[in-house]
Structure prediction request, 216 residues.
Amino acid sequence: MLSLNCSSCGATVNFHSKASVFAVCSFCKSTLVRHDMNLEAVGEMADLQDDWSPFQIGSQGVFDGKKFELVGRLRIAYSAGFWNEWFAWFDGERTAWLAEAQGFLALCFSSDTIAPNKDTLQPGKALTLAGQTFRVDDMRKVSCLFSEGELPVNAIKDRRSLSVDLRGPSDTMATIEYPVRSTISGVADEQPRVFVGKYKDFDEFKFKNLRKLDGW
Prediction:
């Protein structure tokens, strides 16, 4: 783990993953870009209201027999609502994203597959990603409403992108993110990103260290 000091308040900011280039200070809420061993403050993140997620930074789970820990989060907004994307860190530097949306959970991993031109996509279209066949389920313009913890992408408020969700056979899924614009110079996030994974039931993840919520 890499520990650096917040450039705004001096508090310790931890980075589990070498891939993480962005963080939100848990003490002063400054949004920070990591440049090697230095942190640059680029703004401030407001507190999140009405958060009913059972997850939190530090929650742990299991996927395919491997333990992971949630170390960051994006709250993604679109015209009809929002969902959470949790950045998950596995021992050995493997990372993934846990999508939490409308009662569904999916864990997906980054793929080296080149994303197709977004102008060729539309709901219902079939395509092959990472050797698997998927069908476009939905396409949405989205923005970052909130972020916390450490993240591998620029995650300041209002960061915009086009999100494409795809479904495959059984419980397989994929998603493609097409960033609309770069909001922090020096952070390479202009290339589309492809992620491939699976839907799983809550109990299959064997979660630990969840938030204490009424009714749970």
Residues 78 and 142 are 5 Å apart (CA to CA). Residues 55-205 form one domain. The mean pLDDT is 90.
